[in-house]
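Protocol step 4 of 5: obtain the predicted structure for the target chain.
Materials: sequence only (see below). No template structures provided, no constraints applied. The aim of this step is simply to have a reference model before the mutagenesis design in step 5. Sequence pasted as it appears in the construct record:
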Amino acid sequence: METEVYNCGCRVRIYEVEFGESKNDLTERPSRIADYSPCSKHRNAGRIPPQEARLVKVRGENEAFLNE
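Step 4 output (structure tokens):
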């Protein structure tokens, strides 16, 4: 699971999921599903994360990690 946190408080959690009823039905690569948790300011926004939001954390790492 990967979590993106934005400066406004919006969060995006990305899960990798394998679909199929039997072992032979599974795809070679898992599908990525995004779960959006908007902040109170962007609760009714059409796009999460909003364009003006700035990414500050990924997988629990702080912003310095993103700038390396």
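Step 4 remarks: The CA atoms of residues 18 and 24 lie 12 Å apart. Residues 2-66 form one domain.
Proceed to step 5.
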